Amino acid sequence: MPVLPSFLHRHRRKVATAIGVAAASYYIFRLVKSKFFEIGSQLSANLTSRENLRRRFEQNQQDATFTVAALLSSVTDPIISELPVEVITDELQAKRGPVSRSSNTPSQSGDDVNTETTSIASSTITIIDVDAETQQPKRTKKQLWNDLKIMAVTRAMSLIYAIALLIFFTRLQLNMLGRQNYVKSVKAMSEGGDREVALDQGTVEDQLIQNEVNRRYLTFSWWLLTRGWVKIVSNVREATETVFESVTPRTELGFDDLRSLIMRVRELVDFKNENYLEILLPTTKEGEEFVLLNNPCSEREFQATPTRELVMAPMLQALLDESKDLIESPNAKEVISGLVTEGFKLLLNSVQMKYFFIVYEGAQDEDQSQQNIIELEEQRKVRLASILAGITQQSHEMVAVNDRANAYLSAMNCLPELRNFSAIVYSNFAVDWRTMAV
């Protein structure tokens, strides 16, 4: 009997066990290897998905920043026109008569506030050209100064609120639509097909309808640009008149006094604006229809039919309802408050640097160069008439279209609370998944 068969026969159980163990080990190895590559593939897909989400989110925020810059003049120009500080300044200067070039030296009379008129005029850019025949009956100097006081403060504060709400609402709209597009692309990719087909996001008809719904939704910013700002100015003017009623142009204010007055105005405005919904969106069906009637689509771009309208109506209403819920949420109030705070902080800091800091020459350093030293003069008092010039100048800084040149836009756009709110809106995928599942 051959040796090998005899050996295998004698140890057949051991051999069978060894073969079984080897086979099981090989199977387990293949299984572990397969799972390892599967997990690796999933991790890679998750990383790609997260990177795609992050990239889309960042692009959305950039788009919102550019959109705000494009819409800025649409909301600020009407406020500038409604509160023509420059016109009153011209009237005050006209009452003084011609001002010679040598009149730059301050007046020796402590009671004369005419020098502040020149200061305000030199710190502003004439935006409104008013025909003399259409001007109101002439007012006294006292009336003009009172109007100037109220208008200058009201304009600066109204611009801060208007810009803050424009930034907030633009972020809200674009992040909702950006999230919707992202969810659609993910859903299309999960259903199969290559990337280009997935990104096509449905049929041509579906895309036409979705684009029109998005366009109609975006036109609701028209409400803030044409109606909302009126309510802002009304509320701010009323609060300003209440707080500054007893403050005359000759009143000398310390920085703490000025800040207290400005903050008191803000408290009154915020109390009235406990809910910003009426400023940002119409609250009735009639109001919504009014917005759409004033922003019709060209028939070349989209031809509305009864069938299409039946499809679009619930889609648009869902966007508006979600927007209203978000605007009334505690998170939204916190974001808007933070944006307004940034605006007031910049305004007060600018006025403080201009009027309440002193600059004097310090000691020479080792290179024999003179170093200027800037210190806050806490006891310094400045007449309101002078401060109004700085406030008016800041109003023009607020409306600068270039984001890089507009410190107010830059500061508000970089607010952490705004980014966090945008992330919350963008990541609320459940809303769009439910909508597409219907």
UniProtKB/TrEMBL annotation:
Keywords: Membrane, Peroxisome, Transmembrane, Transmembrane helix. Residues 94-116 are annotated as: Disordered. GO terms for biological process: protein import into peroxisome membrane. One of its GO terms (cellular component) is peroxisomal membrane. Coiled coil: none annotated. GO terms for molecular function: protein-macromolecule adaptor activity. Residues 100-116 have a biased composition (Polar residues). The chain crosses the membrane at residues 15-32, 148-169. Its main location: membrane. This is Peroxin-3.
